Amino acid sequence: MSELNPLRELILMRIRAFLREPEALFWTFGFPIIMAIGLGLAFREKPAETSPVAVERGSVAERYLPALRRSPEIEVRIMDPADAATALRKGDVAVVLGGRDTLAFRYDPGRAESRVARLLADRAVQAGAGGTRPVAVRERAERQPGSRYIDWVIPGIIGLNLMSTGMWGIGFGVVQMRQKKQLKRLISTPMRRRDYLLSQILARLAFVVLEVPPIVLFAWLAFGVRVSGALLSLAVVVLLGTMTFAGLGLLAASRARTIEGASGILNLVMLPMFVLSGVFFPSSRYPDVMQPFVKALPLTALNGALRGVYNDGLPLYALGGSLAILAAWMVLSFLLALRIFRWQ
What we know:
Elements: H1 5-19, H2 22-42, E1 51-56, H3 65-70, E2 74-79, H4 81-90, E3 95-98, E4 103-107, H5 112-128, E5 137-141, H6 149-179, H7 182-186, H8 193-223, H9 231-252, H10 259-276, H11 291-296, H12 298-310, H13 320-340
Parallel strand pairs: 1-2, 1-3, 4-5
Antiparallel strand pairs: 3-4
Helix pairs in contact: 2-10, 6-8, 6-9, 6-10, 6-12, 8-9, 9-12, 9-13, 12-13
């Protein structure tokens, strides 16, 4: 029995060491539960969804409005032709009904929801004809730019990368300097606290030049994902997002003394955004009661602005709401970090 005591003590030592590591406990027990809650809310069971169908105002398709409205599976929206084309490109509607003399269906065959909506609309129109004579239909398949999942997810990956590298890079760097007493030595130099914190944010911008362009170039060469908007607009959004998460990284590391402590704080800040901010699936899937909180998150604003430029070709003035949220987080996090930061 005495020979088993060393083995027992070694096992107990490993268990105690594990229980003293908050980040290990978090990733082992907390992370799966939080992910399960987030994904459960996003992909909760909901009533059968209707297919949004646009009917161009002034077209022959208006004759079939009563038949379309009788279908419980179709949501009819009467729109001007230009608005209908924009809604189809953005995915707000699945199919557009128009035409002057002959009923015409416009849809993207690359979208499963568009193919389903086209069949539902045709069934409703034919049923409305009373079974006498089939309604002649002309189809116009249109491959919409930015309609693929890869087109949608690439901006989210860029946003996630900016958050992760900004917060981890700065947070760990500051805490390591504090542990090595390097920050304490800087106190004796003619340096102001705000200069040090601002230098961390501005130095982070230098890495963005090496970080984002390879992702954009690879997505274009490998998958044909193109930036619909101006590259200057994309650069402005990326720089603002970089500075925002650099400020949050500074705030997270302002008081942390150990790598373990900084890791726990960073995980606590980043994980809700990882799950809620629409990186791999739309944040609109969450319940309406959660939407004000979700939309206020900086990664949600960054992803929305990136997709606005990347997929929709929007100018900067059309992204005012998202940019304002990012700017507010950037300023508030920097000012709060400046107030509570300590050197040791």
